[in-house]
């Protein structure tokens, strides 16, 4: 990685390096957010299923 950075800096493409680093960071953040959103969706689905189970349990006692 050091050789790539050195070659980019020697050619004066610092803007391209900055853009690449920004895009990489943004992509990593997107992957993290999507993973967390998926986990939250699974937790919410489990919660709704448990509430439905409790509703069936209490309804059957009447």
Class by SSE composition: mainly alpha
N-to-C series of helices and strands: HH
**Helicity, in percent?**
over 70%
Number of helices: 2
Radius of gyration: 25 Å
General form: rod-shaped
pLDDT < 50 runs, ≥5 residues: none
N- and C-termini, Cα separation? 69 Å
- How many domains? 1
Mean pLDDT: 89
Strand content: under 5%
Number of strands: 0
Major beta-sheet overview: none
Description:
It is a single chain. The chain is an all-alpha fold and 62 residues long. The chain has helices at 2-11, 14-61. The longest helix is centred in the middle third of the chain and has 48 residues, at 14-61. The model has no long low-confidence stretch (mean pLDDT 89).
What topology does this entry show?
Elements: H1 2-11, H2 14-61
Please sum up the structure shown.
The protein has 62 residues and is mostly helical.
Give me some keywords for this one.
rod-shaped, mainly alpha, 62 residues
